[in-house]
TrEMBL record, chains A, B:
UniProt entry keywords in alphabetical sequence: DNA-binding, Transcription, Transcription regulation
Protein name (Swiss-Prot/TrEMBL): ArsR family transcriptional regulator
Keyword Signal: no
Keyword Transcription included in the entry's annotation: yes
Domain spans labelled HTH arsR-type: 7-101
Pfam families named in the record: HTH_5
InterPro entries: ArsR-like_HTH (IPR011991), HTH_ArsR_DNA-bd_dom (IPR001845), Metal_resp_trans_reg (IPR051011), WH-like_DNA-bd_sf (IPR036388), WH_DNA-bd_sf (IPR036390)
UniProt GO molecular function: DNA binding; DNA-binding transcription factor activity
Residues in the signal sequence: none
Top-rank taxon: Bacteria
Amino acid sequence: MSKPTVPSQLDTTILAETFRLLGDSTRLRILFFCLESPRSVGDIAASLDLSQSLVSHHLRLLRGARLVRGNRQAKQIFYELADKHVSDMLVDMAHHVCEESGEE
Amino acid sequence: MSKPTVPSQLDTTILAETFRLLGDSTRLRILFFCLESPRSVGDIAASLDLSQSLVSHHLRLLRGARLVRGNRQAKQIFYELADKHVSDMLVDMAHHVCEESGEE
DNA sequence: CATACATATGAACAAGTATCGATATGTTCG
DNA sequence: CGAACATATCGATACTTGTTCATATGTATG
């Protein structure tokens, strides 16, 4: 278990798919915005200054990859990160990038 | 420092750029291959069944983002991950994806 | 039921990019 | 220096994808 470093080609594909979804600043902003607390689609669009349609499109992709999850509350649907896994990952990566400078 | 969860829009862009580079299975395969030990371009191309040109292109991108680093040794150039930061990140993400199933 | 509101979907377009083939740069050795 | 090898760059192409506009689905309220 000390050397599972090289994933199979299949795993690599899956990993890449996840990374690809995270590799768009609009989607990242949505994710980080929903990281604090569940947010409705309209709230996301307004707060991040994005069209409602665009937000919905992105949420669809994020939902498909099980990165977010939404539950309906009357007319609105509130989205939040799918699980602690995902949120931890995001926070970790944010830290990685913040510490990026002054390495060696 | 307990709630740096939401990065600035600028940071988000930088983060996304990094993710975008990781969001390609060919590049990921190259990275994981170089994770074990430094590899020459030709070795990467042969082992991963990719054209030399393609490998070089991807290495250029990865180099530009300081994800890999190469040092020349006679005719060959051996590439390795830029620092422990990057390699840790990759390994972590690989684990995340492996544990992906059987969550709830 | 009809109206208003919130979200989702579909078509279409522009921009980005992964890949390939050919060629150039650079390095070693005779 | 010139030949051989390793890597990098350039041009072109096919494909993916982020975004917008218009419209559909779904949900609550008078």
